[in-house]
Amino acid sequence: MSRSSTIRIVTLGLVIFTMLLTACQPAATPTAAPTMAPAAAATDTQAPAEPTAMPTEPPAPTEAAPTEAPAATETTVPEATATVPAAVCDPLPNQPTVNAGDLGSADNPIVITFVPSGDTGRITTAGTAIAECLSQMTGLTFEIEVCSSYAASMGAMGANKAHVGFLNTFSILLAQQKYGIVPVIANLRKYNTN
Asked: What are phi and psi of 126, to 5 degrees?
């Protein structure tokens, strides 16, 4: 593989990675206006200077008017609507030209593998949209493959049946050791535990 082909693949990997990050970012959640608790009556919090005498008799019970609990009111929380920005698939300047049989041509597409880390239907739909957008941007032909496991994705890349894959850390280490696959981009996720 020539140096220019390697650079194209690395650049393509960066484009794919950027698109995936954009497509997979969490949906915006509406922020509720802060609510304030009713102001409590001010109370004196200082201890008395002198000890007070304890009463010897309990106070006489007093008749209090019955109180009713306030009626419960239903509050609705607005549903978070996923607003995914529209993909910008404008053709890139200086698109590569590929000959028949070259990687990226119609008869030798660039294959992107995904693993079933979620709903396979959603992964397939999103992956197909990414492949179509990349084709429009680069003029190259892309296909996706949703593999049955990380091992199947690694095997496809090791056998040159797939050219780009998304693997977890352990799978990347195995792929490097077993097939000589070189990771180009790493994604560090920040999880929120709230």
From this structure: -65, -40
Contact 121, 73 (CB under 8 A): no
Mapping DSSP to helix (H, G, I), strand (E, B) and coil, where does residue 193 land? coil
Tens digit of each residue's pLDDT (9 = 90 or more) over 48-59: 555 555 556 665
Is residue 88 very low, low, confident or very high in pLDDT (cuts 50, 70, 90)? confident
Backbone φ and ψ for 107, nearest 5 degrees, come out as -90, -5
Q: How confident is the model at residue 188 (pLDDT cuts 50, 70, 90)?
A: confident
| Core vs surface per residue 82-109: b (16+ CB within 10 A) or e | eeeeeeebeeeeeeeebeeeebbeeeeb
End-to-end Cα separation, the chain, in angstroms: 47
Residue owning tokens 């397939």: 124
pLDDT score at 41: 44
* pLDDT tens track for 120-137: 888 899 899 999 999 999
What tokens were used for 142? 């892309």
Q: 3-state class of 141 per DSSP?
A: coil
Beta bridge partners of 108: 105
CATH 3.30.530.80 fits 3-26+102-179, yes or no: no
DSSP code, position 43: -
CA dist., res. 7 & res. 18, Å (int): 17
Phi, psi dihedrals of residue 51, rounded to the nearest 5°: -65, 145
